[in-house]
Amino acid sequence: MARKTVKKTVKKTAKKKATKSAAKKMAPRKAAKKTAPHQSAKPRPPKGPVWQWSAVETAAAIRTGAISSVEVVEVHLARMRAVNPKLNAVVVDLSEEALKAAKAADGAAARRNPGLLHGVPITIKENVDYEGRPNPNGVPAQMSIMAPSDAPVVRNLKKSGAVVIGLTNTPEFSFRGFTDNPLHGLTLNPWDPEITCGGSSGGAGAAVAAGIGTIAHGNDIGGSLRWPAHCNGIATIKPTQGRIPAYNESAAAERPMLAHLMSAQGPLARGVDDLRVALEVMSARDPRDPWWVPAPLTGPKPKGPIKVALAKLPDDMDVDPSVHAALRAAADHLERSGYRVSEVEVPDINGVWHTWCDIITNETVTLQEAAMLKVASEDFHIAWNGIKGSANTLDLAGWMRATAARNGHIRAWQLFFEEYPVVLAPTTVKPTPGPREDAISGERAREIFWNDLRFISAINVLGLPSAVVPVALHAGKPIGVQLIAGRYREDLALDAAAAIEKRAGMLVRQLWERMG
């Protein structure tokens, strides 16, 4: 009897195990049947009009099949047709080429291995080479200069899958902070036609603020990314020199060494998340730039809380109360986000600015001035003479001393960042001026660059990364602040900008409500 009982027990146990095993095998099939309808449903696109989506949202929506690249590009082209005639931000319409690229992006082969900006519409500033097109740099006499190849930044953006819908306006020789030229005319600020859209990436700033493209390419040798970002209420990052490769095959001669070391390519966008993606894409290696550096995009996090230096403004600066208020608001946003902000004096901002002005002016006078003035407008002559009048004329020994002084300034700032990893500073210390303010007189041009924009241009000679993020509106016009970090620490500048953006909000949404 005992043996029979044992046999029955073994059989029952084996039967139960078999039943449980079968149940486990069946469970995934049943679950799959229940979830299949949900999995086959088309992904939901982001909320709001397509042209208001961020680049990150747009790329994700295309990647998941919520929308096609052709649909996205068609919406942005329609937006361009609706608002650009008034703004004159995009001066070369690439609609036909863009739609072909979008169709290619929607092809099965392209979708298998999409880039970070696959199918996403962007704009390019018309002062870098775009294969098969003129690179006039705002000068009618240079319309015959044809680009035999794409500049590195254009090539990198295209490799990421981005779709270029147009080229944006820039002043003559990209040498003014106000976007106007005899070739394409004046670009207006979408917030208010009575104030400048900035320069020299003014067309880029106005376009992306108005909803034409999700990201705009620009460049910066004296503030040409950060000033338009401030004027148009958008965000930007001027990278460390060497972060993003640069080269124009169409150029008749190589750029002077210090001009190259003080300039940077970079993105303008509505929000900081888009800047991070654009920076990563633009930073890919190109062997044509001998100064490109394969530096990591993120570095070690400083011990918290991160100390931020709110830059003391020099006593000789004429500062508008609205700027003090914006800086204080930005400091409050950072403190509430866990940063520790202290108002301190930064290393010799006046000496740094004069070094920038002396170097860029003397290089230009020696190698470019005569050729430029032969074909430039009267407005250019006035604005250029204003900048030139602020500089010291240098002989060879003076030039060598100026370049040596640059090394000392960079060292002083790098040591400063050891204690304060981020500097909070103004973009301009005055309300945004009119659209042709620098052409009023040489004296007015000098005042703008020395008094108003001192904290912008000075940073170029240091080669430091600097982000700009909008903080508030004053009299209906945007005000931004600048976040400066150590060499190749764009991540720290962008993190601080993101903390401000999170609390201040995205100001362009208010612009879009006005524009409709």
Automatic annotation (TrEMBL):
GO terms for cellular component: endomembrane system. InterPro entries: Amidase_CS, Amidase_dom, AS_sf, FAAH2. Residues 71-492 form the Amidase domain. PROSITE patterns: AMIDASES. It comes from the Bacteria. Residues 1-36 have a biased composition (Basic residues). Residues 1-51 are annotated as: Disordered. This is Amidase. It comes from Bradyrhizobium lablabi.
